[in-house]
Design a protein that fits this description.
Blueprint (H helix, E strand, L loop, with lengths): L7 H38 L18 H14 L3 E5 L5 H12 L5 E4 L9 H4 L17 E4 L10 H10 L4 E5 L12 H14 L3 E5 L18 E5 L13 E5 L1 H11 L15 H31 L3 E3 L11 E4 L3 H13 L21 E5 L11 E5 L5 E5 L4 H19 L1
Parallel strand pairs: 2-3, 2-4, 4-5, 5-6
Antiparallel strand pairs: 1-7, 6-7, 8-9, 9-12, 10-11, 11-12
Helix pairs in contact: 1-2, 1-8, 2-8, 3-7, 5-6, 8-10, 9-10
Length: 420
């Protein structure tokens, strides 16, 4: 295959898979075109100009670009208000700001989608994590977890009972699967959850939207989600934003978050942009297309490993709600081999050999393949996995499908060599 040498078996598999993916790729192109027009219309409606790219310093008072960027983001996400900024240091930080902004001491929260992603445990205070560090638990905020059904879906009947019986200030929903094999949530599935919450309580609905932006034609407008957040080094940064995050939703709730983002009494009136505004605007503009490329990479990966005899989630034919693709490789040896193969096809640091190692926020050693222009960017091709049963790897990203496909094939080649 061109500049890279693959076995005849893998070349034949790849050609077969590409032919089978054509219909799904057409669906993705349709979603991409819709979302690209959505974003373009928001830029035009708000009159984005070169003058809005000027960076501010110090307090950042009167930064027109920063303020307009929030307006553009709110229109794109279909919400009353939004904060989008490079000052969010990670997705976990952004989610933390949202939670601390909305919640108050003594509040109870129900997590409707099972145990949330590992890195948020210390923010919440799950199993004593974050104790004494200012976790939500330190402030007397309780989190209850609603277990998922055996098929990984939300137990809607049990949710209804819990909501009726409990005095919950908020219901927390995680859209993506995290390090589980449960299905990610489409917008209609999210609406099923919020409808039960709104019918039976006054609880605020809070969504971790990471990895889900621009994967559907639907925005979260009308979904019943009151406030949600995500990271700019995932889908909405388009592979261009070097850092940052966003919070979007009801204006009163976003306002509360702004006081946690900076400080009470000041909120969103300050915050120097330091020349980052152009990258965030440009990243938002590119985000629908880049997300489409990541979706194609995920579909191709699923179809390829299905043909190789592995369990994947979602399948190559399923409707997708995020860019994440899991592959159940069954052994640590194959898991490590896949990550090393993927790394060897990375545009940056291709010579690096990934090794499993401890990582803050995780209970087991983690292996990561990530040769990215932006450190930690998961809209760029990457794969990671904790070394624990069922030895599944979670792949995401791909700035363009044509190069991402090579990385996936190099990972598959390493796995095939072990099988032999």
């Amino acid at each position: 295959m061109g500049f890279f040498k693959f076995s005849d078996e893998l070349n034949e598999l790849s050609a077969s898979v590409l032919a089978e993916c054509s219909e799904k790729f057409n669906e993705i192109d349709d979603i991409t075109e819709y979302n690209q027009q959505l974003v373009l219309k928001a830029f035009i409606d708000n009159g984005v100009s070169e003058s809005h790219f000027a960076g501010s310093t110090g307090y950042g008072y009167g930064d027109r670009g920063r303020d307009l960027l929030d307006e553009v983001a709110a229109q794109i996400f279909g919400t009353e208000s939004a904060i989008i900024s490079h000052n969010f240091v990670s997705g976990t930080h952004t989610l933390g700001v949202m939670l601390f902004g909305v919640l108050r001491p003594g509040d109870r929260v129900l997590c409707a989608t099972g145990v949330p992603y590992d890195t948020i445990h210390s923010v919440i205070g799950i199993d004593g994590k974050g104790k004494g560090q200012g976790s939500l638990a330190d402030y007397g905020i309780e989190f209850d977890v609603l277990d998922l059904k055996s098929d990984g879906t939300v137990d809607l009947e049990c949710l209804k009972e819990k909501i009726k019986a409990g005095d919950y200030r908020a219901v927390y929903i995680q859209r993506s699967r995290g390090y589980t094999l449960r299905p990610s949530l489409t917008t209609p599935k999210i609406k099923e959850i919020t409808s039960i919450v709104k019918t039976n309580s006054k609880a605020v609905t809070i969504l971790d939207n990471c990895y889900g932006e621009f994967t559907e034609k639907l925005t979260l407008e009308g979904s019943g989600v009151d406030i949600f957040a995500g990271s700019l080094i995932k889908n909405p940064g388009g592979g261009i934003a070097k850092c940052g995050g966003y919070i979007a939703g009801r204006s009163d709730l976003v306002e509360l978050c702004s006081y946690r983002f900076t400080t009470p009494g000041i909120g969103r009136e300050v915050g120097a942009t330091l020349g980052n505004t152009r990258d965030i605007f440009m990243g938002l503009f590119h985000a629908p297309h880049v997300t489409g490329e990541a979706l194609k990479t995920a579909v191709f990966t699923a179809a390829l490993f299905e043909k190789m005899g592995y369990e994947v989630s979602p399948s190559s034919k399923e409707t997708r709600a995020d860019i994440i693709q899991s592959i159940k490789l069954c052994t640590s040896e194959k898991l490590i081999a896949f990550c090393r193969g993927l790394q060897s096809g990375s545009v940056i640091d291709s010579y690096v050999v990934p090794e499993p190692s401890p990582m803050p926020g995780y209970d087991s050693d983690v292996i990561m393949a990530a040769g990215a222009f932006t450190n930690g960017s998961s809209i760029e091709l990457s794969a990671d996995a904790p070394l624990r049963e069922p030895f599944a790897v979670w792949l995401q990203g791909g700035l363009n499908f044509h190069s991402a496909k090579i990385g996936v094939l190099l990972g598959a080649q390493r796995v095939l060599e072990i099988q032999e």
